[in-house]
Design brief:
Distance between the termini: 10 Å
Oligomer: single chain
Shape: globular
Mean pLDDT: 96
Strand order of the largest sheet: 3-9-10-1-7-6-4-5
Number of strands: 10
Largest sheet: 8 strands, mixed
Strand content: over 45%
Structural class: mainly beta
Low-confidence stretches: none
Helix content: under 10%
Length: about 100
């Protein structure tokens, strides 16, 4: 499953469930959660399992929002790889 994020503001969230994130963007990514404190995932770093709803992501001064038409839930215990190409961040989710 691919979840894309663009700079267009959106109120849609992405809800991981014990998801491990791998940051392949080459830059620090800040996960901005709905109700939990922000989490900075360093470049090429791997997180522990995350289960808080993500409001949006930040890379440097750029904010990335889900471009899906509804909230997205990630199945439990998956891995999500973050990449950026052509101003679009992609979260590639695999089991």
């Amino acid at each position: 499953m691919n979840i894309c994020f663009t700079e267009t503001p959106s109120l849609k969230t992405v809800k991981p469930s014990r998801t491990i994130f791998l940051n392949n963007t080459g830059q620090d990514v800040t996960l901005k959660f709905v109700t939990a404190p922000d989490y900075v995932l360093g470049a090429y770093a791997i997180s522990n399992g995350i289960s808080a709803a993500i409001d949006h992501l930040r890379v440097g001064e750029t904010e990335f929002y889900s471009c899906h038409s509804q909230n997205v839930a990630i199945p439990a215990n998956c891995t999500a790889v973050l990449t950026i190409a052509n101003s679009v961040m992609t979260m590639t989710v695999s089991t």
